[in-house]
Write a structure and sequence with these properties.
heterodimer; A: about 140 residues; mainly alpha; two-stranded antiparallel ribbon; elongated; B: about 70 residues; alpha+beta; about 60% helix
Amino acid sequence: MCTPLSDSRKARIVAMFDSYCKTVIVNRARNHLKPSRQERHELLVASLEIYAEADEKPEEPYELRYRNLTATLWRKPLYDAFQTLKETEAIVLILKFWERYPDAEIAEYLHVTIRTVRNLKKRAYEKIRKELLKRGESLEVKL
Amino acid sequence: MKLSYEMIHAAQQGDPFAMQTILDYYEPYINQVSTRCGASPTGNIKYYVDYAVKEQVISELMVAILKWKEKI
């Protein structure tokens, strides 16, 4: 015959069950709520490439000017999102998507390390994503 | 309401009342993790519970509760 469990042991079992259930809930919800980080990143990069070469041209294009670089944007939401970026972050995106520079050359242009270029890119992506979401212009939803 | 060992044990034995009580206990937590963020047409960010996700999480939690084993 089994010996009855003590109260402290029962409490321990309940605590384990509680954390088990919370882990299950969080993991399942996470799988359904959003695409993985990698997927979100790929969608944003793909979107920026499409935006950089958009053929839908309004009467007046939006010009971005940083140092001696110029980029033409055809969509206002993205232009507005660029205004929230720091100069170096915007330059990194322009060199990557408009000028098609590899990371190493961007690093050389800005006199920084490749790691810094990657960090700047990451920050810029996040800012653009947030800004577009605020304006109801999520790139990821559109694609 | 608090979780109790007896309730967990009953739910594992297939007691629907105990199972429902446990699910009710976790409902606020499930709502929290099923909340999504979206932009309204006016540009404001709003939060809402995604019921499709919530139902999926509840059904998977029920399966997980039945699978749970005391390792103590």
